[in-house]
Design goal:
Blueprint (H helix, E strand, L loop, with lengths): L2 H20 L17 E5 L5 H14 L17 H13 L6 H14 L5 E5 H6 L1 H10 L3 E4 L5 H10 L8 E5 L23 E5 L4 H6 L3 H10 L18 E4 L5 E6 L4 H4 L6 H18 L6 H10 L17 H9 L14
Parallel strand pairs: 1-2, 1-3, 3-7
Antiparallel strand pairs: 4-5, 6-7
Helix pairs in contact: 1-11, 11-12
């Protein structure tokens, strides 16, 4: 038996284990139209392909026969202009004195009454900025928390630099044609992957390995722990993937945490190839079991992925996204015994 086939069998057993966890414990309500606690909260970071994962998760839940509430994926960010507008509209229709947390409770009750599951993206920074929202998530909502992390910290840093999310000592966004500093920032995502206005990252190679180390999965675990969120810490197994587990908090809360070694497992099917399809099918089946759709196994998920995006998007070589690629490659090939060299994804 090939190693990959053994891995698929092993992970299929892991899916069954997670499915068993989703049917027991205090995390599942006794009744309700979907038998699901709401909402599903995806704890993630910037530049972790979370928009694609959130969209695909919603479509797969629909495929499983579960209705998903549309929009409001970043509702926990009170500072977003669209969230401000919708909150003001809500306040205009109710009695005075309501706060944003009251608005969130109202939305949750509305989705619950409609029998729809609510999938929300949560960034650590927003939960730190708004402690009342963090308390709501931690103490009131019966959530299914999912942790999403991008393992290739070099790609994540490149994205953060291009989007102007990273400090300038890490690097600066530059125009692909002129090399001048770019101010497109997040808007560069709408400019396409080619053309004279394309944005590249110029990375500061001094201290680069340390910057990559600071973006590892353990950091997200530590940040969630600081916020005292009722989620489990789940060790990775021998394959590098992690399992779902039940966490009984000191305050009596209980939740199921779905943790992946990388979101790359969820997205690699887009590059094509039967091995990539198998990896993504297993990852998505595990995630769906944690999100409340254990009825979709690896075969069903694999068939859906094959019909929805399989082989349609090859990853962009890092050499095409970094202005000083050769200097970056030289800095990483020998650093930490070559630990980060595999992040280069050589063309």
């Amino acid at each position: 038996m090939r190693f990959l086939d053994f891995l698929i069998v092993y992970m299929s057993l892991a899916v069954q284990a997670v499915q068993a966890l989703t049917t027991q414990g205090k995390s599942t309500p006794a009744d309700g139209p979907t038998q699901l606690p709401t909402p599903v909260v995806v704890y993630t970071e910037t530049c972790s392909e979370s928009s694609f994962v959130m969209s695909t998760l919603g479509r797969l839940l629909n495929f499983a026969g579960i209705q998903v509430a549309r929009g409001q994926a970043e509702i926990l960010n009170r500072g977003r202009p669209d969230n401000k507008r919708s909150f003001e509209a809500f306040k205009a229709q109710v009695i005075s004195g309501v706060g944003y947390v009251d608005y969130l409770r109202h939305l949750q009750r509305q989705h619950d009454a409609d029998g729809k599951i609510w999938i929300i993206k949560a960034f650590k920074a927003h939960l730190e900025l708004f402690p009342d929202i963090a308390r709501l998530v931690r103490e009131e909502w019966r959530v299914r928390p999912i942790k999403l992390h991008r393992t290739n910290s070099l790609e994540r840093l490149i994205c953060e630099v291009r989007d102007c999310f990273a400090p300038e000592e890490a690097g600066i966004p530059v125009n692909a044609s002129t090399g001048a500093k770019s101010t497109a920032c997040f808007a560069r995502r709408k400019m396409g992957a080619s053309g004279t206005q394309r944005t590249l990252a110029w990375l500061n190679v001094t201290g680069l390995p340390s910057r990559l180390a600071s973006r590892d999965a353990a950091r997200l675990d530590r940040e969630l722990a600081k916020l005292r969120l009722a989620v489990a810490t789940i060790p990775a197994n021998a394959t590098g993937r992690s399992q779902g587990a039940v966490n009984d908090g000191a305050d009596g809360t209980s939740s199921i945490m779905c943790s992946f070694s990388s979101d790359e497992e969820l997205t690699v099917f887009q590059a094509g190839g039967s091995d990539n399809l198998k990896i993504s099918a297993v990852a998505w089946a595990t995630l769906l079991a944690c999100a409340g759709a254990p009825q979709l196994g690896v075969p069903e998920v694999s068939a859906w992925l094959e019909a929805n995006g399989y082989g349609r998007r090859s990853p962009m070589p890092i050499s095409k996204t970094v202005k000083n690629y050769h200097a970056v490659a030289a800095a990483l090939r020998d650093a930490e015994g070559g630990t980060y060299a595999n992040f280069l994804r050589l063309p």
